[in-house]
């Protein structure tokens, strides 16, 4: 560029100089503009670095394996024959103590759709997947066992909540496990057909968030096949649904405990972003009015809010995560970016009680699935904790 300008000043001057601008002054102006652009780039880089989070890799898999039970068992042997490690994909995650809980996408030969991993280990080899709570609770088409685990959440009292979408034979339900009492199944709530359709093609249960009140936990569950939010009271052992402005939802997240607690929702097949007051979702049989917030740059596949009011989002067909402080005007900021991943839904994440954000990352860009488990210290707990710092 410089050699062209100095060797061809006349032709370039006719196109770009002002009517009374000298060649020397033009070069000075050009240098000034270039410096401004350079400084702007440095500023943007600084903002990017300020928002970056330092993730470390905990485990990495190029192939998964299960911890198979010992002893002869014809049903387990059949499952092992049909098992395809390439079909294992993580959907949702929850953390409690030194265990990570993960739901798996169900495909033919998937041995179990709910597994757990240790958060740390002495071996450098990645751990095998252990069905939770045991192999006995993963019998296909037995409606008294887990059929299709989806959304997961742990509460502050040591329980694991599991959304089970069921299958053609079994309707949807919620499982509540007591992690402090040998993982005992504390309760199973089977949704009535009037709340969640018993026809498998008419329901699609996914995310779950928990609203902790002084004497209860109320779960809110996303049914992607309907225009409702499903609610469940542990105290009353009762579920109901609330209409939401003739819209279906793709992901959601709950704000920390406040008087005006909000559920944030991303619209299906859209980058539109909304919120609704939790108070409206407690009105059985009523409709809730959702408020438009703004638009993401892509459609969120996962969302999560921490105790410091920061919302984290992963997106379909995107290799990055974004965040937004819900106390401020809506503004999307990237805080993690990977290389090419070639995956529709590459991320899922959860927060622990020590201020760490745990995340899985799926990479299919080379034609071979590689899965990572990563961790980053962010200095905040989940939305269930009122304290901003651990």
Describe the SSE topology.
Blueprint: H1 2-7, H2 9-16, H3 23-51, E1 56-61, H4 74-82, E2 90-96, E3 99-104, E4 114-118, E5 130-131, E6 149-154, E7 159-164, E8 173-178, E9 184-190, E10 205-213, E11 216-223, E12 228-233, E13 238-243, E14 249-254, E15 262-267, E16 272-277, H5 278-281, E17 291-295, E18 300-305, E19 310-315, E20 320-325, E21 333-337, E22 347-351, E23 356-363, E24 370-377
GO cellular component, one term: extracellular region
Keywords: Secreted
Protein name: Bee-milk protein
Kindly list the characteristics that best describe this protein.
disordered N terminus; mainly beta; single chain; 390 residues; 24 strands; Neuraminidase; globular
Structural description of this entry:
The chain is mostly beta strands. The chain folds into two domains: 2-45; 56-377, 6 Propeller (Neuraminidase). 14% of the residues lie in helices and 38% in strands. The chain has five helices and 24 strands. The protein has helices at 2-7, 9-16, 23-51, 74-82, 278-281, and strands at residues 56-61, 90-96, 99-104, 114-118, 130-131, 149-154, 159-164, 173-178, 184-190, 205-213, 216-223, 228-233, 238-243, 249-254, 262-267, 272-277, 291-295, 300-305, 310-315, 320-325, 333-337, 347-351, 356-363, 370-377. The strands form six sheets. A four-stranded antiparallel β-sheet has the order 1-24-23-22, with no helix packed on it. Strands 2-3-4-5 form a four-stranded antiparallel β-sheet, with no helix packed on it. It has a four-stranded antiparallel β-sheet with strand order 6-7-8-9, with no helix packed on it. Strand 15 (262-267) and strand 16 form a beta hairpin. The protein starts with a helix and ends in a 13-residue tail after the last strand.
